Amino acid sequence: MYQNKVTLIGFLGSNAEVRNNGSFTTLSLATKSSHKKNGEYISHTEWHRCVVFGKLSEFAKTLSKGAHIQVEGELRSREYDSKKTDTKQRVWEIRVASILKLDRAEKAGPEDQEHEDAPQEEVAA
């Protein structure tokens, strides 16, 4: 049995970017971790390139910088010829199968404040 499944929770570092005449959308997702070294906390931010295809791409393109999301998918690598360095480069990406938007709903007005915690929106391919 084989399994290639990745789950990431983080914040978008930029607005979703529609690529190749709308055939896919890319997301730049930041995750953060920290550890203690010599009594001080050292934090590290890791950036993940997420690629979204199909109908899910339509939802992904509505996401903007700062959105708190969870993505699930598979880890993929691909090679391309770099025009800058004239060499082959390998890039690792998450091919997204589902997106869960974790942002809280914005308050519309005083009459809506009792419904402050709106259900989370999940979209799957």
Short description, anyone?
The protein is mainly β and 125 residues long. It has 1 helix and 7 strands; from the N terminus they run E-E-E-E-H-E-E-E.
Would you mind describing this structure in some detail?
The structure is a single chain. The chain has a 5-stranded mixed β-barrel with strand order 1-3-4-6-5. With 125 residues, the chain is mainly β. It has 1 helix and 7 strands; from the N terminus they run E-E-E-E-H-E-E-E. Mean pLDDT is 88; it is low at 111-119.
Keywords, separated by commas or semicolons:
125 residues; mainly beta
Task: Describe the secondary-structure layout.
Elements: E1 6-12, E2 17-19, E3 24-37, E4 40-53, H1 54-60, E5 68-81, E6 88-101, E7 121-124
Adjacency order of strands in the biggest sheet: 1-3-4-6-5
Largest sheet: 5 strands, mixed, barrel
Rg over C-alpha atoms, rounded to the nearest angstrom: 18 Å
| Unreliable stretches covering 5 or more consecutive residues | 111-119
Strand content: over 45%
What number is the mean pLDDT? 88
Helicity level: under 10%
Total of DSSP H or I helical runs spanning 4+ residues: 1
Number of extended strands:
7
Distance between the terminal alpha carbons, to the nearest Å? 23 Å
Shape: globular
The arrangement of helices and strands along the chain is: EEEEHEEE
| SS-derived structural category | mainly beta
